[in-house]
Give the backbone structure.
Amino acid sequence: MKIATYNVNGIKARLPRLIEWLEETQPDVACLQELKSSDETFPEADIRAAGYGAIWHGQKGFNGVAILARGQDPIEVQRGLEGEPEDVLSRYLEADVMGVRVASIYLPNGNPQPGPKFDYKLRWMKRLQDRARAILAEEVPAILAGDYNVIPTDEDVYSVRAMQDDALMQPESRAAFRTLCFQGWTDAIRSRHPQGPMWTFWDYQAGAWQRDAGFRIDHLMLSAGAADRLVDAGVDKAYRGREKASDHAPTWAVIRD
C-alpha cells in the first residue's frame, strides 16, 4: 500500500501535473495540501476520471486539504482540529482508507516570527499533538501525512544560515515536531534514509530548484502499527522539475498490506 503526500500549490493550476503524477505512480492514497479551492470548485470529476475517490476540505484562494483513494471513497473521520472553535481555516482532514487511518495536514507556516502567526502555529501544533495522541489510543495503523512547515533538523535544509530566522526551523517548531516523535510516531523518510539531503520543497525564487537549494518539510509520520509494516519511503523529486510544477515534490511511503 503506497501512501503519498503532495502540496499541490493550487489544485486547479496544477491539475495536469497532479493527474499526470497519479497516472504514472498510482499511489493507493494521496493526501493533498494547499488546494486553494473552495469545496464547490474542487475538480472531483477529473479526480474520479483518473480512478480516485476523494474527500476534501476546501477554502477559496488558500489552504485546503484532500484525501484521494484509488478505486474507492475515503471514509471521513474528522475535519479540522478541536481546541479553537473560532479557527475555520481548512488545514486538517482525517479518514479511514483500506484499513489505515490517514490524515492530510497543512500546518501553518508561522512567518513572520515572533508574532501572532508564529503563536498560532505553535498552538496548532499542540492541537495536532492532542489529536495524534487520541489516534494512537485507538491502536489503529495510522499515518499523519502532509506539509508540516517544519524543518526537523539542520540536516534537512540546504543552508542553516539562510533559514535560521525562519519559523520553519525555530527551536519551538522543532520541539513540537519532536513531541510527535516521542509520542511514538516514526518519520518514514528518515527511517529509510537516515542521512543526507532528502528535500521536498524548492522555492520558486533565486533559482532554488536549479541550485538544489531545498529543504524537507513534507512528512509522513507512522504509528507503531504502520511503522512495523514500512517497506520503503522516498521523494518523487523529478516532478518538481516539470513545467508549471508545484514548489513541493510528492513524498511517499509503502507499507505492507
Remarks:
- The CA atoms of residues 113 and 165 lie 8 Å apart.
